[in-house]
């Protein structure tokens, strides 16, 4: 059964990277970065690829493949998250909801002004 990404607000089940449990300093960096510093990952816990930048990957030096698959650098720490990515779908949904709320409030104010004007005239 595929496991979800360990990053809060991410339900991605496609591929990922295991936590660097053998390197305590790097593990701490990952846990702080994903905002789960009290979390204890298992050997199967993953952070999906969408939380890493292109610069976090390198081509393997000893690959014999024509198109080798990039591998995660040893120093890489996840850095792309919905709470900081201004182009994320979560951010976009919040922005759209806020705009709808503003429009709804403007309509309410317009109706109230219209009602008040009718009361004054009548």
UniProtKB/TrEMBL annotation:
InterPro entries the record matches: THAP_domain_protein (IPR052224), THAP_Znf (IPR006612)
Gene Ontology terms, MF aspect: DNA binding; zinc ion binding
Domain THAP-type intervals: 1-81
Superkingdom of this protein's organism: Eukaryota
Pfam families per record: THAP (PF05485)
Keyword field: DNA-binding, Metal-binding, Zinc, Zinc-finger
PANTHER family: AGAP005574-PA (PTHR46927), THAP-TYPE DOMAIN-CONTAINING PROTEIN (PTHR46927:SF3)
Protein name according to UniProt: (apollo) hypothetical protein
């Amino acid at each position: 059964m595929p496991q979800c990404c360990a990053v809060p607000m991410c339900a991605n089940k496609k591929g990922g990277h295991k936590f660097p449990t053998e390197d305590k300093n790097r593990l701490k960096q990952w846990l702080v970065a994903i905002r789960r510093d009290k979390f204890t990952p298992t050997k199967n816990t993953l952070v999906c690829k969408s939380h890493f930048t292109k610069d976090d990957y390198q081509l393997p030096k000893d690959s014999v493949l024509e198109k080798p698959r990039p591998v995660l650098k040893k120093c890489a720490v996840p850095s792309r998250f919905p709470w900081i990515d201004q182009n994320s779908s979560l951010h976009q949904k919040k922005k759209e909801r806020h705009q709808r709320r503003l429009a709804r409030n403007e309509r309410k104010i317009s109706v109230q002004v219209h009602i008040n004007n009718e009361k004054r005239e009548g």
